[in-house]
Design goal:
15 helices; 2 domains; Rossmann fold; six-stranded parallel beta sheet; alpha/beta; seven-stranded parallel beta sheet; 45% helix
C-alpha cells in the first residue's frame, strides 16, 4: 500500500513537471458557449499532460465567472484593430514557457497568429461557429471571415466542434488534413437522473446570449400558438441580451402577442444546472450560426429533453425522437406542434430524458472533449 501511494505521488509530480503549457487566447466580454468550452478545457486538459493559461483580450464577464483557477493575463484590447497587444502575448509566452498557442475567435486568431509567427511556435484554432453566418450583420460577417481567412495561413491545426463545421471549413478551401473534429462536452451532473413527466403546467426553458440569430421570436410565436390551443405552459428565459435595443424589440414583441404573463426573464445566471433543473423541456430555436451548442449538452447532462432547430451541428448531438425533437428553423408552427406532442406523451418524454442523460455521459463529456483536444496537441509536438 505504501509503495503504491509513493508511486502515485511520484507520478503526479512528474506529470506536473512534464506538462506542456498551452496559452488560450479568448475574447472575454461574455460567458456563453465558447467561453464554457475554454473554462472546461482548463480544468480537464491537465489529466492529458497539458497545462492551460489564458490571455483575455476584453476582460469583462469571463474573468468574473469562470470556474477554473488557471493563470489569466488581461490584455485590454482597445479595438478590433488594436494589434499591438500581440507583443504582450509574446512576452507572456517567453516568460512562462508556453509551447502552444490556441485561439478561439477571429479576433484572438489575429493576435495569436502574429505572436506565433514571432515565436515560431505551433498555433491551434478552435472553430466554434461559422463566422460567415454568425450574426445578422452582413458587413461584420464578411469582415470576420476575411480576418479569419487571413490569419489561418499561419495555423497548424483547426479543431472543429462538429462535422458540419468541418465541412464548412473545407468548402472555404481549407485542406481536410488540417481539420480535426472534436465534439464539445460538458461535465456530467453527478446526481442527475431520468425524471418523470411533469404534471399540470409545463415549464419550457431556453438559455442563451439573446441576439437575433438565436431565434427568440420564433419561440415566442410558438408560445402564442400553444396558448391559443390551450396547452398550459410557461417560459423560463435565462440569459442576458446582447444589446438594449434587441431587448426592447423582444419585449415589444411579447406585448404584441399578449403573452407577458407566461414568461419569466431571469437575466444572466451562473447556476446553469439549477436553472435547467427548473425546466421540463429545453428549447433552442436558433436560426443559424451554431457549431455544437454547449447549452444543449448541459440540458442533456441534466436529463432534460431538448427541442431544437435543425441547424448545423445540433442534430449531431440530439437524435430526433431519441434524445429530443428537431424542428425546422424559423417555423413557429412546427416548434409548437413538436412541443405539444411531447407535452402530450409522458412516456416519450421519460424515454428521451433517460436517453439524453446516457448520451451525454457516454460521448459528450468534458473529459472526452479534453482527450480529443489533447490528441491534436500530441500531433503537433
Amino acid at each position: 500500500m505504501i509503495v503504491k501511494a509513493d508511486a502515485a505521488e511520484l507520478n503526479q509530480k512528474l506529470t506536473k513537471v512534464d506538462a506542456v503549457k498551452v496559452l488560450h487566447l479568448i475574447n472575454g466580454e461574455h460567458f456563453s458557449g465558447a467561453e464554457r468550452v475554454q473554462d472546461l478545457l482548463a480544468t480537464a486538459l491537465p489529466q492529458f499532460g497539458y497545462e492551460v493559461g489564458f490571455a483575455c483580450l476584453k476582460p469583462k464577464k469571463f474573468p468574473q465567472v469562470r470556474t477554473s483557477d488557471t493563470p489569466l493575463m488581461e490584455l485590454n484590447m482597445k479595438s478590433k484593430f488594436d494589434i499591438g497587444c500581440y507583443k504582450r502575448v509574446v512576452s507572456m509566452v517567453q516568460e512562462h514557457g508556453y509551447q502552444i498557442l490556441h485561439a478561439h475567435t477571429p479576433r484572438t486568431l489575429m493576435i495569436a497568429s502574429m505572436a506565433a509567427k514571432k515565436l515560431g511556435c505551433p498555433l491551434v484554432y478552435h472553430v466554434h461557429s461559422p463566422v460567415g453566418r454568425d450574426s445578422n450583420r452582413g458587413l461584420m460577417n464578411r469582415l470576420n471571415t476575411w480576418m479569419e481567412k487571413f490569419s489561418l495561413r499561419r495555423v497548424d491545426r483547426m479543431v472543429c466542434v462538429s462535422n458540419s463545421l468541418s465541412r464548412y471549413m473545407e468548402q472555404l478551401g481549407h485542406p481536410a488534413e488540417s481539420l480535426s473534429v472534436v465534439a464539445n462536452g460538458v461535465s456530467p451532473v453527478p446526481d442527475a437522473a431520468p425524471r418523470s413527466a411533469a404534471q399540470g403546467v409545463w415549464t419550457i426553458g431556453t438559455m442563451a446570449l439573446f441576439r437575433p440569430r438565436k431565434g427568440t421570436e420564433v419561440l415566442l410565436d410558438a408560445l402564442k400558438i400553444l396558448k391559443d390551443k390551450n396547452v398550459k405552459v410557461t417560459l423560463r428565459a435565462v440569459g442576458p441580451f446582447e444589446t438594449p435595443e434587441y431587448e426592447s424589440e423582444i419585449h415589444n414583441h411579447v406585448e404584441r402577442l399578449g403573452i407577458a404573463d407566461m414568461i419569466q426573464w431571469t437575466g444572466f445566471q451562473t447556476d446553469v444546472d439549477r436553472q435547467l433543473d427548473l425546466m421540463d423541456v429545453f428549447v433552442l430555436p436558433s436560426l443559424y450560426g451554431e457549431g455544437l451548442p454547449m447549452v444543449v449538452l448541459e440540458a442533456m447532462a441534466n436529463a432534460v429533453p431538448v427541442v431544437a432547430a435543425n441547424v448545423e451541428g445540433i442534430p449531431e448531438a440530439v437524435r430526433d425522437g431519441v434524445d429530443g425533437l428537431i424542428f425546422q428553423p424559423a417555423n413557429a408552427e412546427d416548434l409548437a406542434q413538436k412541443l405539444a406532442a411531447l407535452i402530450g406523451d409522458g412516456d416519450a418524454w421519460t424515454g428521451m430524458s433517460r436517453s439524453a442523460l446516457e448520451r451525454q455521459r457516454s460521448c459528450l463529456s468534458d473529459t472526452a472533449m479534453a482527450k480529443g483536444v489533447g490528441a491534436v496537441y500530441d500531433e503537433l509536438i
